[in-house]
Design goal:
Blueprint lengths: L12 E12 L6 E12 L3 E5 L6 H8 L7 E11 L5 E3 L5 H7 L4 E4 L13 H12 L5 H14 L16 H12 L6 E5 L7 H18 L2 E6 L2 H4 L5 E6 L2 E7 H6 L4 H7 L40 H5 L5 E3 L4 E3 L8
Parallel strand pairs: 3-8, 3-9, 6-7, 7-8
Antiparallel strand pairs: 1-2, 1-4, 4-5, 9-10, 10-12, 11-12
Helix pairs in contact: 3-4, 3-5
Length: about 325
């Protein structure tokens, strides 16, 4: 997708994560799973967040929305989100009452494995309107039913399906229902945690096209989390790459896809076949992701990196701007373009 896709985005920041730290465990030696993460999302923008399993992608999403289950513990940082009233609030300092009001209306989440999250004993219509009933109790049952029909039509499902049970829908349709539920209160920000993982490639493309169309029509921002970087070139305006609890590279989607500057990004891209163009040999990344409870002293990727030297193994790199400020890369020896 060309970078001109950013036509719906503005310079206004909807999500601004600053120096976020998360630990797992309450003892004297907790595991640091997020270490100083900075991330921004602009209005109308799709940010792709990619990395291997266990790198901290889902933890980042759940920590930012205050949904992190025990033994996860947010130990520092700020998460500023612009709400429907255009006020910026630090979600890490909201009260429970404020959080309940802001969820679904300011930020909604489509969880990993969401298509299996529907309650099997309730009809689709009831589940679609639960959030509306909770957040807008003044609405009538008829109004909520009409809104449920609108939401189904919005995601390309026949309105007659509003009386269906989840088992009567295909996997792709259940996923569309979950997206419709997330959009029920017209949130500013939609966080999608691997929403296409359990779908075949044909349905994956349909879901991606659906998300892109809805974003263009409704103007919300998206954080799209996946392990497959090749998917992101189809939908994302910018891509951020995570490794061992840190953002190691971020930049415009097309530029990062074709010219990775961090060795880990290059390894990720060589691990998946391209969706378009000629065939190429797949490479991959040697070794395994590091143990977050025993990270090396220097760059956490150094033990797997073909370009690492002694400096990389002893000193931890910090993000620096490259490509005239368009790219942030945390690497002592970034790849040349």
């Amino acid at each position: 997708m060309p970078e001109s896709v950013l036509t719906g985005a503005s310079d206004e920041t909807i999500l601004d994560i600053r120096d976020l730290h998360v630990d797992y465990g309450y003892d004297e030696r907790p595991t640091h799973v997020l270490r100083g993460v900075d991330l921004t999302v602009r209005r109308g923008e799709v940010l792709g967040l990619a990395g291997e399993s266990g790198c901290g992608k889902s933890t980042l999403a759940y920590a930012a929305t205050r949904l992190l289950p025990p033994p996860g513990l947010i130990t520092g940082g700020e998460v500023w989100i612009t709400g429907a009233d255009d006020e910026k609030r630090d979600w890490l300092r909201l009260t429970d009452t404020q959080l309940r009001h802001a969820r679904w209306s300011d930020v909604a989440v489509v969880f990993q494995g969401a298509m299996n999250s529907l309650n099997p004993v309730h009809r689709i219509g009831r589940q679609l309107t639960d959030a509306i009933r909770a957040h807008r109790p003044h609405t009538s049952a008829a109004e909520r039913h009409e809104r449920g029909i609108e939401l189904l039509e919005l995601v390309g499902i026949d309105p007659d399906r509003i009386r269906a049970y989840p088992h009567e829908l295909s996997g792709g349709m259940r996923q569309r229902v979950m997206i419709a539920m997330a959009l029920a209160l017209e949130p500013r920000l939609l966080i999608m945690d691997e929403p296409t993982t359990a779908l075949d490639v044909v349905m994956q493309r349909q879901i991606l096209e659906q998300i892109a169309d809805l974003r263009a029509r409704l103007g919300f921002s998206v954080v799209f989390i996946t392990h497959d970087v090749s998917l992101l070139i189809e939908i994302a305006d910018r891509i951020a790459i995570m490794y061992a609890g840190e953002i190691v590279e971020s930049g415009p989607a097309r530029s990062l896809y074709h010219h990775p500057r961090h060795p880990y990004t290059a390894g990720l891209l060589s691990s998946f076949p391209p969706l378009h163009g000629p065939r190429r040999d797949l490479g991959g990344i040697p070794g395994s992701p590091p143990d977050l409870a025993a990270l090396p002293a220097g760059c956490p990727f150094a033990p797997r990196c073909a370009w690492a030297d002694d400096h990389c193994r002893t000193d931890h790199p910090h993000a620096t701007k490259l490509d005239d400020g368009a790219r942030d890369v945390a690497c002592w020896k970034p790849l040349t373009r």
